[in-house]
Amino acid sequence: MPDEIEYQQKILQYQWDDLLALWEAIKKGNTPKWAPGKAFEYLIIRAFQLDGADVVYPFSVIIDEEVEQIDGVIYTEGFACLIECKDQKAPINLEPIAKLRNQLLRRPATAIGILFSRSGFTKPARTLAQFIAPQTVLLWKGDEVEYALHHRYMCQGLIAKYRYCVEHSYPSYNILLEESP
User: Fold this and answer.
1) Which CATH number fits domain 4-168: 3.40.1650.10, 3.30.470.10, 3.40.140.10, 3.40.1350.10?
2) Which of 10, 30, 152, 165 is most buried, by CB atoms within 10 Å?
3) Residue 1's pLDDT is what?
4) CA 103 to CA 28: how far, in whole Å?
């Protein structure tokens, strides 16, 4: 399997249409040149990059040894966001939110987390995300990723989700809807 540098070199060749094709392959579970979950991680970071964000591709935090593996970082419109991506068939439960919260605790208070899940989230996960203040973890489901890819709406989708969270204390606002929950 390729290493992180090879994945990054590969994804940097992708443009919007390539990302849409990769998204279709991810949904079908047909990404043979990618380790499990890697195609989704790199797709998300590249989409934000193509939409104008400054990004950092997946990396490890080393303090004598690896202490964290971060799926990426996005800087846009004054936001600094730690990214976690889950490409699983079942909705995501609490654990990735708790992990991301703990990673945020080691970062400046203004950093937020974004958890992307192709399959969505369980009700307990959505509830936990709503009550982990002062950390903020925004939730993106697969249909929102697809919409944002088609409409080149990654950065604006992030802003919409953040604003809704600030105003309504709801981190899983669906960018496809006029109103959420």
Assistant:
1) 3.40.1350.10
2) 165
3) 62
4) 31
Q: What is the pLDDT of residues 94-129, one digit of tens each?
A: 999 999 999 999 999 999 999 999 999 999 999 988
- Encode pLDDT of 128-148 as tens digits: 888 887 889 999 999 999 999
User: Residue 140 corresponds to which tokens in the numbers above?
Assistant: 């993106």
pLDDT tens digits for 42-82? 999 999 999 999 999 999 888 888 888 999 999 999 999 99
Give the span between the Cα atoms of 106 and 43, in whole angstroms: 26
Question: Residue 180 has what pLDDT?
Answer: 43
Edge-to-edge strands, sheet with 137-141:
54-56, 72-76, 79-86, 112-117, 137-141
Q: Cβ distance 154 to 47 under 8 Å?
A: yes
**Tokens 């380790």, residue located:** 35
Which amino acid would we find at residue 159?
A: I
Per DSSP bridges, beta strands 72-76 and 59-63 are: unpaired
